[in-house]
Amino acid sequence: MKKIDISVIPGDGIGKEVMPEALKVLETVAEVHGGLSFSFKHYPWSCDYYIEHNKMMPEDGLDQLKESDAVFLSAVGDPNLVPDHISLWGLLVKIRREFEQVINIRPAKQMKGIQSPLVHPNDFDLIVVRENSEGEYSEVGGRIHRGEDEVAIQNAVFTRKGVERAVEYGFQLAQNRRGHVTSATKSNGIVHSMPFWDSVFESVAEKYPDVKTASNHIDALASFFVTRPQEFDVIVASNLFGDILTDVGAAIMGSIGIAPAANININGKYPSMFEPVHGSAPDIYGKGIANPIGQIWTGKMMLDHFGEHELGNTLLQVIEEVLQDGIKTPDIGGTSSTTEVSDAIVTRLKTLK
Ligand code: NAD
Ligand code: IPM
Ligand code: MN
Fold it and tell me: Isopropylmalate dehydrogenase-like domain: which residues (predicted)?
């Protein structure tokens, strides 16, 4: 029996609604497999936890998580309770950084059973590799000078090592896909770090002569995601560019509520963290209508991570079958609840046993 230990952090808002549903689905997946079992350890770290303890997680929180094979997180942030910069730096971003999860992979594809807002989605199937540890999200120099001449300064830090490993990851991924990598850039020199990004991209590309490349300015690229997403295979992007681009990727699929993501630790020293693209959605929290598919598909990425590709693909197929049956939450035009969607997925999975 293959046993996988998972740290579970539902976090805030709809995270608390979609996480139990995704766990239910993973339990069923394990039953269908027969030779796989998950052990879930639950952590209540969230903005509610902060109100009680004045911190987002205990001092030894990372040591506790370190023991597991993976972290399964939903969403962090409840701006009505705790300012975002405190909750995010104290939990989500802290784990990404301390566990050296330097790559964030975020697929987007035309899903069966969901109407893409695009008139011609043309079966697009792309994956954004987002640099996850530096760039515009650097901790260096970020400060606000108050006073009459108020000014905010944020330094974007790009290291050769950081850019190289993200770009390499993209090329390797492309070799197992359709062999094409696009660099998201702003190489007209207005953003000073981007010509550096370009030069690293070009030097990595030389090592992969079998992979075709393209380079697009981020503004144009965001528009191409809308006008011709089918032309993209792998896109490598800096931290902020990747963040924005993947919300566009989610939107062309039909909803941010279905978009999955994985924060990957590539040196094997720490667990990776699986966490959907969406946030805690305070506007719909408590209504029972949050789309659980983003969290469930993120679970599929976790299965892939542990080598269970066949099972992962079966899960994605079952998700699409349920969508084709019209069992959908309101964000994608349906009338079903969060639980109705996950129950339908569980029921279909059980028929495969
Ligand atoms: P959001 O993703 O929470 O919500 C954006 C919009 O998408 C909202 O209208 C919401 O209702 C909708 N939406 C999101 N997930 C959905 C789902 N599963 N089903 C149906 N609709 C869904 O982004 P936001 O409003 O910018 O941020 C809210 C909070 O979440 C903030 O505190 C923010 O910092 C945090 N956040 C956290 C993460 C994370 O933990 N990974 C990601 C993004 C935002
Ligand atoms: C995401 C989120 C986070 C990010 C925030 C909440 C820090 O938007 O995971 O896409 O910007 O990385
Ligand atoms: Mn985001």
Answer: 5-345
- Whether 243 lines ligand 2, by a CB cut-off of 6 Å, is yes
Residue range of the domain that includes 234: 116-253
Q: Looking at the predicted complex, does its ipTM rise above 0.90?
A: yes
Using CA atoms, how far apart are residues 8 and 247, in angstroms rounded to an integer?
A: 24
- Tell me which residue has its CA closest to atom 31 in ligand 1: 77
Whether the CB of 277 sits within 6 Å of ligand 2: yes
Residue keyed to tokens 């997925």: 345
Q: Are residues 218 and 165 in the same domain?
A: yes
Number of structural domains, the chain? 2
What digits encode the pLDDT tens for the residues 173-188?
999 999 999 999 998 8
Asked if the structure places residue 111 within a domain, the reply is: no
Last residue of a domain, one of 253, 284, 300: 253
Does 244 share its domain with 312?
no
Band (147; pLDDT cuts 50, 70, 90): confident
Give the number of the atom of ligand 2 that is nearest the alpha carbon of residue 247: 10
Distance, in Å, from the CA atom of 105 to the CA atom of 232, rounded to the nearest integer, reads 15
Number of helices (H), then strands (E), belonging to the chain: the values are 12, 12
